[in-house]
Design goal:
275 residues; alpha/beta; Rossmann fold; 6-stranded mixed beta sheet; 10 helices; 27% strand
Length: 275
């Protein structure tokens, strides 16, 4: 399987605080990869380092066959797009104006706004189902709609690789599934490589081709959800006891946390395979 991103012996720190240490990771091209792990384990830092928003202390990052540090900033923006956690648009900016910002890396002194730029922006509006909101201020939209606009802006960059840091944070369940369905369709229909950080392990299993579990500054495990997500992994990474069963709709791993709650019928537990 060809890799679009690769980290080799990567070390990243904030001052004297080492966040990632001797980390090695391969991101498969044309797949959805989800980073999971406990709060503060370095998932977002890794994503920012891949986008060159955070400088590595040492080690190498390859963007396909090129050393990331050797590529110009504008060229990086033409090859990967990142949506950080909780972005905020300037007050009064319309949906279309924000999406147009995604075309900035493709502008040159002798090549300003073009018909091609217009078509790409219109396509981003269409794909994210935001066309009817084009002239509406971003700050007047719902949380799910705003997230769609930001994704549309990253699509307007027209990159094959999209990085997203917790794209479903602060969204209700329906909007979480809506955003993840959109990203799934982009991968299925357009072949975009998607790398994202998610907190919900069950949604990660449902949507990911490739899961990466981060623990203690390094990669604890990576591979297909059914290979990576086990009760042992959840205990090691999240320090939580659980039972893993099969999702009745998607046949992916489903994590059932242990803990206190109302008592349940023992027959139901046996039926779903929890003893």
């Amino acid at each position: 399987m060809r890799n679009v991103l690769e980290a080799r012996d990567l070390n990243v720190s904030y001052g004297d605080n080492l966040i990632l240490e001797d980390l090695n990771l391969q991101i498969p091209k044309g797949k959805i990869t989800v980073l999971v792990g406990a709060n503060g384990c370095g998932k977002s830092t890794l994503l920012r380092t891949f986008a060159r928003l955070q400088k590595a202390k040492s080690g190498d990052i390859l963007l396909e066959d090129d050393q990331l540090h050797a590529i110009s900033t504008k060229e990086v923006a033409k090859r990967l797009a990142i949506l950080p956690q909780g972005p905020v648009a300037p007050e009064g900016l319309t949906v279309q104006q924000l999406i147009k910002q995604g075309r900035y890396p493709h502008q040159r002194w002798l090549k300003q706004w073009s018909t091609e730029d217009e078509k790409i922006v219109e396509n981003a509006l269409t794909v994210t189902q935001m066309t009817k909101f084009a002239d509406r201020p971003v700050d007047a939209l719902s949380g799910g709609q705003r997230q769609r606009v930001w994704i549309a802006m990253t699509l307007a960059q027209n990159t094959d690789l999209i990085l997203l840091d917790e794209p479903t944070t602060y969204l209700d369940m329906a909007h979480q599934v809506e955003i993840l369905d959109l990203l799934f369709d982009l991968n299925e229909n357009e072949g975009r490589t998607v790398v994202m950080v998610l907190h919900d392990l069950n949604l990660a299993c449902r949507y990911a081709h490739h899961i990466v579990a981060v623990r203690d500054k390094q990669i604890y495990a990576q591979g297909k959800p059914e290979e990576v997500v086990t009760a042992e992994m959840v205990q090691a990474v999240f320090r939580m006891d659980c039972t893993i069963i099969k999702d009745p709709l998607f046949s992916t791993p489903l994590c059932v946390p242990h803990g206190k709650g109302r008592s349940v019928n023992e027959e139901i537990l046996e039926e779903v395979g929890i003893s």
